[in-house]
From TrEMBL:
Protein name: 7-dehydrocholesterol reductase
InterPro entries assigned to the protein according to its UniProt record, in alphabetical order: ERG24_DHCR-like, Sterol_reductase_CS
Functional note: Catalyzes the last step of the cholesterol synthesis pathway, which transforms cholesta-5,7-dien-3beta-ol (7-dehydrocholesterol,7-DHC) into cholesterol by reducing the C7-C8 double bond of its sterol core. Can also metabolize cholesta-5,7,24-trien-3beta-ol (7-dehydrodemosterol, 7-DHD) to desmosterol, which is then metabolized by the Delta(24)-sterol reductase (DHCR24) to cholesterol.
Pfam families attached to this UniProt entry: ERG4_ERG24
Family statement: Belongs to the ERG4/ERG24 family.
Reaction equations catalysed: cholesterol + NADP(+) = 7-dehydrocholesterol + NADPH + H(+); 7-dehydrodesmosterol + NADPH + H(+) = desmosterol + NADP(+)
Species name: Saguinus oedipus
Keywords of the record: Cholesterol biosynthesis, Cholesterol metabolism, Endoplasmic reticulum, Lipid biosynthesis, Lipid metabolism, Membrane, NADP, Oxidoreductase, Steroid biosynthesis, Steroid metabolism, Sterol biosynthesis, Sterol metabolism, Transmembrane, Transmembrane helix
Presence of the UniProt keyword Transmembrane in the record: yes
Amino acid sequence: MGPSVTARVRPRREVDWFSLASVIFLLLFAPFIVYYFIMACDQYSCALTGPVVDIATGRARLSDIWAKTPPITREAAQLYAFWVTFQVSSPCPGVGHSRWPPGRGDQAASVFQVLLYTSLPDFCHKFLPGYVGGIQEGAVTPAGIVNKYQINGLQAWLVTHLLWFVTAHLLSWFSPTIIFDNWIPLLWCANILGYAVSTFAMVKGYLFPTSVRDWYVLSIGSSLSKFTGNFFYNYMMGIEFNPRIGEWFDFKLFFNGRPGIVAWTLINLSFAAKQRELHGHVTNAMVLVNVLQAIYVLDFFWNETWYLKTIDICHDHFGWYLGWGDCVWLPYLYTLQGLYLVYHPVELSTPHAVGILLLGLVGYYIFRVANHQKDLFRRTDGRCLIWGRKPKAIECSYTSADGQRHHSKLLVSGFWGVARHFNYFGDLVGSLAYCLACGGGHLLPYFYVIYMAILLTHRCLRDEHRCASKYGRDWERYTAAVPYRLLPGIF
């Protein structure tokens, strides 16, 4: 038997005023920030200052702007319900039904729902050399549990995009611009799901957690605890560490990887189709954005097993921060470049386009190789070559929440000898390339690189705080060997 509910819910720490103020600010205003960006494109051709200037000068009132905002529609609700149900079908066995948007092809939809819902257990790893899919193990949780995951994101991405091509282009069941045409109504649907799943996760965490052992350890005995006596903080950061329904449906892996990231490339394709419909052709800037972001998305799914060992899965709880963020923030703000190019088609000169492509590929190379070096080092316990040499490492030890002493190594070779988070630098270089493809006419498409700089800097600090607590003096030895966090000579 596990510990009592009373023992499990005892808060471990209090929230400081700054953290609480930040949490309340995000809960109140993040949805309006997303709305503001999308509304500015819809009503002001992506001019971020346009709404503010109109209201300040009296040319418009908030009620006027709201009156021009498309409401939720039946078509958008059906489309979004189909999309989520279709994506849910991939990781979790069962039986499901959905409606093919906008009302045609129900038999085909049902067939594919059954196939995906009974999971078509991942077959990509059987014929794609180097790809690791199927049943895989995650990291050890604070209570010593090793969860298993059904890795089939690449398969879901391929099936989804194949169906998109066949139904939209070959069968013409709907226009490929359908996502753009319903973009704001879909925003309301995404918000409903984001808040619904976040609320459900919190209730589930208190009343019927998946793992009582993790619940107990993280409630009263671990430095990883996010449990507090504050409702708002708990709602945002999450109660449960690895919430699940059944054996395979894992909330964190599903919402981090789907439906938002699978949708990312479909959204960009819909934007490209709309640009062609409005302007007669697809610009090379739109092609660049589609290609570079598709590389990033495909990299995510190709390395989905590696993702099980990242900060999102290993350390974050599942709350509003991930639930709403993955449903709304990611698909709506990570795709601003494509949306901007619908309203402002940019045709780059050949040298400019080639330069941006190379910049994006260099950023991706740094990001991927840095992550590969760490993964290779971990898998081989250092018995490998990095940049043609035997890797160097700092020997360290730590005590886990169950009191066990463990030994580990911190890599100081390759890109990990250049900076402690040089993979994040590669991510930022790639992010900058997406934005530069949009030219310099507006600030809006540059939101992504600004946001990523803040996010990844914050991740650096979070990760280092956790590692300093975990490794103690061994971490000091590591930071002395690799003095810079993100960018050598600067930070």
